[in-house]
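User: Hey, my collaborator sent me this sequence without any context and asked if I could get a structure. I don't really work with proteins. Can you help?
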Amino acid sequence: MNQKKIIQIAVITVVGVWIFCLSTLLSVTVGKRVLASQTTTPAVTVPTVPSTTAPTTEATTAPSTTRLPVGGNIVMADVSVEDPEWYVEEQESIKVSQIIDEVNKNNTTQKTTKPKSNVPEGKSEIIKTYVNGVNKLKASTDFSLYKDDKLNLTIDKMPAESIAKSMAESLMQQVQKKPITYNFVGGVDSATGKNPNEAIAPLNVSAAVEESAVTSAVASATGDGGYKITLLMAPELQTYTTPAKNHSTMVEVVDITPYIPKGLTVNTLDMSYTDTKIEATFDKEGRIISMVHYLKVDEAVASVNFIINVEVIVHGDFTSNYTFSY
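Assistant: No problem. I've predicted the 3D structure and written it out in structure-token form, which is a compact way to encode the shape of the chain:
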């Protein structure tokens, strides 16, 4: 074998060995990289996707188990998931709304359970309350009454004859009353022998009135659990033979009959009542504790005969004050 051929074989051998070593090294490097990629667990981020429907159960931060594929194998990993901020805010908002609703509910309950006022309302009820209160008093048996009456009369026309003037002055003196206190026990005042029906207006009859005869009816609270009633009456005429229909069953009208002297004859008597007002104060138990009757005699024209015919014209007013003690 010549020298040239030997050199060629040597070169080919060296080149082959070099290529073989290079291939081996490359295979090892690649293998290491593949092995590393198969044995190292990659970091996993689990995104939280908000639900379009509000959760109906309590939020939890308990760890959940997630299956992750690694190099063709299934690896079990525990992942802790915190409640998202939007969910926490939503739950707080729900709690605040519930508290507000509860407060509103309690306020509404308190308003609806407020005790109803005992003050009568409406014209019919106010009138009925007053009439019933007076009649209840008339039927009561044990209480005290202080009564003070005042009659003011002014003579507008009177003949100059001394006899007529003397009769008029005597009559006015007799109709004036002094204050009096009644102590009713068992329905009778021992000092006078009278019962409540005889002392409280309307005298000797039950209280009653036509609603149309009352022009105004007002009731207002007194601040101590009681209330006050004020009634205004329409004008009425009283004659010697015919009483004023509603005044005679509500207030104490002027009655001169008991004071007419013997020998005197009343031909006519026309008495016009105007501006009549009734006030009554009730306590919290619905009892009348005070009462005021005021009636104005706008004009009273009387024609009497005592030896001669005499015409008398007067005007005035009458006030009756009541105070009750139980």
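In plain terms: The first strand starts at residue 64 and ends at 70. You can pass these tokens on to your collaborator as they are.
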